[in-house]
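Reviewer 2 asked us to include a model.

Predict the structure of this chain.
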Amino acid sequence: MFDSGSTGFMLLATSLVMLMTPALAFFYGGLASKRNILGIMIQSFVSLGWTTVLWIAFGYSLCFSGGQGGIIGNLDKAFLNGVTTSTMFTNGKIPEIVFIAYQMMFAIITPALITGAFVNRVSFKAYFIFLTFWQVLVYYPFVHMIWGGGLMASWGVIDFAGGIVVHATAGFAALASVFYVKDRVDKKSVPNSIPLVAIGSGLLWFGWYGFNAGSEVAVDYVTSLAFINTDIAASFATITWLMIEWNFKKKPKLVGLLTGSIAGLATITPCAGYVPVWTAPIIGIIAGVVCYSAVEFKNKMKWDDALDVWGVHGVGGVLGTILLGIFASKAVNHVGSNGFLLGNYQFFLTEVLAVAITAIYAFIFTYIMLIVINFITPVKVSLEEEQMGLDFALHGEQAYDDGTL
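Predicted model (structure tokens):
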């Protein structure tokens, strides 16, 4: 039966998730060097347009039509065939077109997350090709396998809002990208605008309520559970990161605090609607410690993941999935599962296996894809273009007038 309250909420949640892509552009744009602000921001904004085209043409159908128990769906709903304004989503509460729009926002932001590993180095033409094929060959299969009734769903894998589907895929794709495109010429470039990073981070946190609470696809007690878990975990991770960095660096860092918030948000994402509230502070603290350690390990290994996509999103997504396997409880969500703490060792092992397969596949396939794309067009910009800055070299624009910064 059509539920106007749930429909209204899902339209709001869809809008919140849409806002996260421009927020990501601000977040990454502020972290980039002065000559590469627009080059990184356009990679997020172009996904708003191009991913929508792909999603309507065949993406939604491949993810959510047919293919039960398989790796990918079919094309029965290509170009939204058979979907009308009166067609209802499977829960019977919201129109299917609202669900289509909501999931489209996830498809838009996921490849944009990877771009933090591309900063200063990757040509726009190569990225555009990457944006297209990465979705079709990495993102769509995992959406279908977990959320579309596919293979992993048949194993009993659950992922409330994208720890596996979004963050593990994007984070390990970013790591593969770092290894392929190698180091920037200037690895010591500093953020051009920390206030812009703060604006992006705040908007990401705001949008994450739609990302996580909206994943219930209705308004009920699980929606409120996901909402409060999201905020608590993010808050505890923020303060944990701040305190750790303050201890080691002897000064409280704003960029570190903001990065900690994103780590907490990424880590709670797969758990949000499946774990009790008392676990959210624990998940947030663990996220702050582990993701901070991952970033420090990356620095020690000298991997040039300039914007810490792997350490925050990749490690956060994997960690959150593992913690879901530990803390999940059917007492708070009857369609979920009981985790390791409640004696369900099989579920814990299933979640670990699923996220391991996802991370390995995303890493290997992304690396191979970049090799193939390089035969079509150079993936990495020339030394001269990198030194000039991608804003002017590739786009003929500048973020700021000369002399203002």
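Residues 345-376 form the longest helix (32 residues). The two ends are 56 Å apart (CA to CA). We have added this to the supplementary material.
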